[in-house]
Amino acid sequence: MKKIQMVDLVSQYEKIQEDVDQSVLEVIRSSAYINGPEVKNFQKELEEYLKVKHVIPCANGTDALQMAMMALGLKPGDEVITATFTFVATAEVIALLGLTPVLVDVDPNTFMLDPQEVEKAITPKTKAIVPVHLFGQCADMEAIMKIAKEHNLFVIEDTAQAIGADYTFADGTTAKAGTMGDIGTTSFFPSKNLGCFGDGGAIFTQNDEYAEKLRVIANHGMTVRYYHDEIGVNSRLDSIQAAVLRKKLPHLDTYNASRKRAADFYSDAFAASDKIKTPAKVKGSTHVFHQYTLKVEDVDRAELIEHLNRKGIPAMIYYPVPLHMQKAYQDDRYTEGQFPVAEMLASQVISLPMHSELDDEQLTFITESFLEFVN
Length: 375
Prior knowledge:
This protein is α/β, with parallel strands linked by helices. It has helices spanning 9-15, 17-30, 37-50, 61-71, 89-96, 115-121, 141-151, 208-218, 239-248, 252-270, 301-310, 340-348, 360-374, and strands at residues 54-58, 79-83, 100-104, 126-130, 154-158, 166-168, 174-176, 183-187, 201-205, 222-224, 227-228, 276-277, 292-296, 349-352. Strands 1-9-8-5-4-2-3 form a 7-stranded mixed β-sheet, sandwiched between helices. Strands 12-13-14 form a 3-stranded antiparallel β-sheet. Strands 6-7 form a two-stranded antiparallel ribbon. Helix 3 (37-50) runs parallel beside helix 9.
C-alpha cells in the first residue's frame, strides 16, 4: 500500500508534471516574474470558472482578507462579526486593522456561523460579517445575506477552504462560494483544493468600484506609478505560481469529485457507529471536502490519534483552541464556557487524510483502523 499522507501533493503533481514543468520553464525563460501574462490569464480563467466579474490575484489568503476590509473602508473601532471556531487569519486581520473582532458561536452540526448568534451580536458599531466556508462547504448564506441586508452590513466571504463549492438559494439561483457577498477571498496555499507551489491568494467581487480599489491597494496604493492615492500594501501573485494554478484549475472539479468520493467512503464506513458523527451537509451547499472532519463521542481522542499514528495513519485536530480562548484574543467580553458549541467541537473533532489521490486500499485501511479503536 502507498504511504498514507494527510495531503498527497507529490502524486497529484506527477499526473500533470509535464504541463506544469513546461509552464514554469516558460515563465523563467520570459523573466516575466511579476504581473506577467500568466497572472493575467489565470485571473481571466478564474473569473470564467467562478462566473464573477472581477478576480484580483494577491500574495496569500490573509492579505486577501485584509485588503477586502481596507477596500470597504472599515475604520478602527468598527465591529466585524466572525466565528470563534476557525483558523486565526480570519480574526487576525480584523485586529491588525484596529477593527474590533466580535466572535460568535457556531452551528454544532456544520461547525459554521450560526445566523441566530450573528443577529444577537449586532450593535450600532457592527459594519461587516465574515462567514467562513469551513472544511469545504458554504455557510448558511441565505440567512447571512438576509441579516446583512436588514442591518446594512458588508459580507466578506472567507473561501480559503471551499473554492469550487456551489450554493443554491431558495429561489433556485446558484453561485460559487466566494461570489455571493460584497467581496470573497481565498488562499492558494499548497494544501488547498486549488493550491500552488508556494503562497498565493485572490479576491473576488462583482462590484466595479471595489475591484478598482482592491487593485490599487494591492499595488502600494498606486493608480499611476509613484503616485499613491490610497494607503496600500504590496501583495502580488507571482507568475510562477499563476502558471501552476493555470494548469491545476481545469482539474479542480475532478479533484473535488475525488475528495467527495473519499468522503462518501468514510461516511458509509462510519454510519453504523453511535460514537462517530460524520460531517453534516449545509442545506443548499455542495461540499468539496477540503477536510474530512468528524466528531467522536465517548472516545479518548488523544489515544485514538496515537493508535492511528502507530499504524502510519496521520490525523489532525482543526482547531484545538477556539479563538476566544487564544492568548492573543483574550478579551473581557469573552469567558470560557461562553461559546459552548465551539468549545465542545474543539474537544471532539478529528480530521482524517483527505486529498484527491486517496485510493480504496488506503481508505479501507484507515476506516478499519479507526473503527478497530472506537469499537
